């Protein structure tokens, strides 16, 4: 069953067509990761699913409802999107920023203030940042700030969470922290997650479904075992990959890869 569906989307930037005839179904209660080369349309696809980008044609459906018929607050109470490189004033306190995630729920009843407080506390607990609550954003490291932004999205308490490259610029420890939080959210709250990642092995480890995108098309979509193969990775990234199976995690691992085309181009340049 799909909670989020793109139906025959055409998406353009200025006059450049990024996607045409895009159909995509996000499975309810699963973690779906979009992978692909730089500039292939991964972030564009995510923004279209979150109604940040308006398609030239086609529609996106949230739980069967055309998102064009829903107001912004209604969508925000059901779907959260954390973009790449979000910004906020450095002097803003951590707790204040997380509180902004409660905007779509404000004014719903006499007990809403207590519900907001509880949601903020749950988000800080899940991301392990309660000790930072009174600190200014500008005093935090990059990894700590990313956890704060993630906590704001968690405080929104939506059915669907869209994450655009949530591990970019983070060291490996903070990358794992963020992805483990995402997995915990999915397991404990059955939250549907769609995220963009560059690391193929992280996508395999933390996803139920992987969608491989190239040149504005979904080339392949399936389980990590179906996508992290030499054949698919060659088709999408033009690399020769060697894959092994990690029995401890139950997922395929790309442990070596090369780009023969680059070697050939280098040889031609030396002639």
UniProtKB/TrEMBL annotation:
It holds the Pfam family ABC_tran. SMART domains: AAA. Residues 4-240 form the ABC transporter domain. One of its GO terms (cellular component) is plasma membrane. Transmembrane segments: none annotated. InterPro entries: AAA+_ATPase, ABC_transporter-like_ATP-bd, ABC_transporter-like_CS, P-loop_NTPase, Siderophore_ABC-ATPase. Keywords: ATP-binding, Cell membrane, Ion transport, Iron, Iron transport, Membrane, Nucleotide-binding, Transport. This is Iron complex transport system ATP-binding protein. It comes from Dendrosporobacter quercicolus.
